[in-house]
């Protein structure tokens, strides 16, 4: 399963900028709908499209490995 590390990147950005960043601000600045962001935050393994991922890369100014993590579910 691919895990989207949205919360971690949002926490990092909040810390670096020393201000509170809301989901509404992320939505407005990235062009990703608030509903999609909410699903990413609250639904483990949420399946989204590459356009959304690209927008989040641009917003967080990060690389794929910073936003996405592979989690092996075979145990």
Extract low-pLDDT stretches: none
Counting helices, strands and paired strands, the structural category is: mainly alpha
CATH architecture: Orthogonal Bundle
Give the beta-strand count: 2
pLDDT averaged residue by residue? 94
CATH topology, what is it called? 434 Repressor (Amino-terminal Domain)
Radius of gyration: 12 Å
What is the subunit arrangement here? single chain
* Percentage of residues in helical conformation: 55-70%
| Strand order within the widest beta sheet | 1-2
- The CATH C-level name is Mainly Alpha
List the helices and strands and how they pair.
Layout: E1 2-4, H1 6-17, H2 23-30, H3 34-42, H4 50-60, H5 64-67, E2 68-70
Antiparallel strand pairs: 1-2
Descriptive key words:
75 residues, mainly alpha, 434 Repressor (Amino-terminal Domain), two-stranded antiparallel sheet, globular
Could you describe the 3D structure shown?
- The protein is mainly α and 75 residues long.
- The protein has five helices and two strands, in the order E-H-H-H-H-H-E.
- It has a two-stranded antiparallel sheet.
- The longest helix is centred in the N-terminal third of the chain and has 12 residues.
- The model has no long low-confidence stretch (mean pLDDT 94).
Summarize the structure.
With 75 residues, this protein is mainly α. The chain is built from 5 helices and 2 strands; from the N terminus they run E-H-H-H-H-H-E. The mean pLDDT is 94.
